[in-house]
Design brief:
By secondary structure, the chain is an alpha+beta fold. Among the domains are: 129 residues, no CATH class; 76 residues, RNA polymerase II/Efflux pump adaptor protein, barrel-sandwich hybrid domain (OB fold (Dihydrolipoamide Acetyltransferase, E2P), Beta Barrel), CATH 2.40.50.100; 102 residues. 31% of the residues lie in helices and 34% in strands. It contains 5 helices and 21 strands. It has a 6-stranded antiparallel beta barrel with strand order 2-11-15-13-12-16. Strands 3-10-8-5 form a 4-stranded antiparallel β-sheet, with no helix packed on it. Strands 7-6-4-9 form a 4-stranded antiparallel β-sheet. Helix 2 packs antiparallel against helix 3.
């Protein structure tokens, strides 16, 4: 019985060993080998920009309105002989629309009659004044003779007093006549002002184009009543010159300090894919706006539109040029972010200051152990703490990698300018890792932004 149990135990141990061996071999055969993704150091031009979104606007727009109330009687004719509409070319002084002027014509006739009446009153007052002056002259002669005679047997006292009273009354009547003329003149001035107002209102019934331009918006139709109250009714929107356009760009307060007048700008419009337009900053408006606690400023960019490609109110994707570098060495930003593990570094480089500094910075960012190979660092994370324009890229050294210190320049968000000893054109630098399975010819790329964990 004991011999039988011993045989069973040995059999179990043998089977377990076989299973363990098969599992170990399977694990070993299914293991992965790590290869590096590389990119070449390229020579080319680099442009650092600030990106923002704006709207294409005509450089000068005139809003033509109505200053009187009334019904639109007719719409004017454009240069082509057709009714003025969107896109019509208009000239200065051209009639855009006609408002019904019957009421204003009646008011004009009434004010003309009032003026004639005031002028007639003035003529009557002048004639009355001449009569009063003649009576004053007669009264003064009688009074002069009475004064020579004086109260005596030849001139009774009552007659003397009567001549004096007649003179005083005639003198006062002349003053009243003069005042009547002044009053009549004031009435004439008032009637003229009323007439001028009526004539202007009559003229306002014709909507006249104040400039040469193109109609970009028509807001009225024949038969529509326009009402002019405290604000002028808007009827037509005229772009004075569509050969010069502006882009109104909203720039965040963080970037506004880098914007200046005359700064070169490039922009694209979704309506014209693949075409790049050029312009320059003409004005930075100081009336900032706040939206959800974000302060932004409107920047005006002037652009040439001689070919008429740009249309008003298109959305523009604008790039303000900050720095430009021509014929410089560049690498993808991923090459400056990628950091190897200690096991991936060439053994002869492990004791170098660069490796210690980079791996030390990585360990500090990772915190407790558990980070993995190919851990991606933030942009320019491998720079030294004391020199902000120094970075590290990694090149292949057999199955290992070794560091190359470089000076970092301008970045456009995708590539970065580098320079220094040990870096040259077409040199391959590591930008990531690729894990290739031994059972499959298809490789799986490791995302450099995905945390990985060390195997114990």
């Amino acid at each position: 019985m004991k011999h039988r149990i011993r045989k069973i135990v040995w059999l179990i141990l043998i089977i377990g060993g076989i299973i363990a061996s098969v599992a170990w071999y399977s694990h070993r055969s299914n293991g992965s080998s790590v290869s590096y993704q590389t990119a070449k150091v390229e020579r080319g031009n680099l442009l650092a920009t600030i990106s923002a979104t704006g709207t294409v606007e005509p450089e000068e727009v005139v809003d033509v309105g109505a200053q009187v109330t009334g019904k639109i009687k007719t719409i004017g004719l454009g240069n082509d002989g057709n009714e003025i509409d969107y896109g019509s070319i208009v000239k200065k002084g051209m009639v855009l629309a006609q408002i019904d002027d019957s009421l204003y014509a009646a008011e004009l006739a009434s004010t003309e009659a009032q003026l004639q009446q005031a002028q007639a009153e003035e003529s009557k007052s002048r004639a009355d004044l001449e009569q009063l002056q003649a009576k004053l002259y007669q009264a003064q002669r009688d009074w002069d003779r009475a004064q020579k005679l004086g109260p005596s047997e030849a001139l009774a006292q009552t007659s003397y007093d009567s001549y004096q009273s007649a003179y005083e009354v005639a003198k006062a009547n002349v003053t009243v006549g003069q005042a009547s003329i002044i009053q009549a003149q004031a009435s004439i001035a008032s009637a003229k002002a009323t007439l001028d107002k009526a004539q202007r209102n009559m003229g306002y019934c014709q909507i006249i184009s104040p400039v040469d331009g193109i109609i970009i918006d028509r807001r009225v139709n024949t038969g529509q009543t326009v009402v002019s109250s405290m604000s002028t009714s808007s009827l037509f929107l005229i772009a004075k010159d569509l050969k010069r356009m502006q882009v109104w760009v909203s720039v965040n307060e963080v970037d506004i300090g880098k914007i200046y007048e005359g700064q070169p700008v490039t922009f694209t419009a979704d309506a014209f894919a693949g075409r790049v337009f050029k312009g320059q900053v003409s004005c930075i408006r100081l009336n900032a706006s706040m939206t959800q606690n974000v302060v932004s400023y409107v920047v005006e960019v002037n652009a040439d539109n001689s070919d008429g490609t740009l249309l008003p109110y298109l959305t523009a994707n604008v790039n303000f040029e900050l720095q430009r570098r021509d014929n410089v060495l560049t690498v993808p930003n991923a090459a400056l972010r990628w950091v190897p593990t200690k096991e991936q570094v060439s053994p002869e480089q492990l004791d170098s200051e660069v490796v210690k500094r980079v791996l030390g910075a990585t360990a500090a960012m990772m915190g407790p152990p558990g980070g993995g190979p190919g851990m991606s660092m933030p942009t320019r994370a491998s720079r030294t703490e004391t020199t902000s324009d120094i970075g590290v890229v990694w090149v292949r050294n057999g199955t290992y990698v070794q560091p190359v210190e470089v000076h970092i320049g301008v970045s456009d968000g995708t590539k970065t300018e580098i320079s220094g000893q040990g870096v040259e054109q077409d040199q391959a630098v590591v930008v990531g890792e690729q894990t290739a399975s031994t059972e499959s010819s298809t490789g799986t790329t490791t995302n450099p932004f995905t945390p990985q964990f060390r195997r114990r």
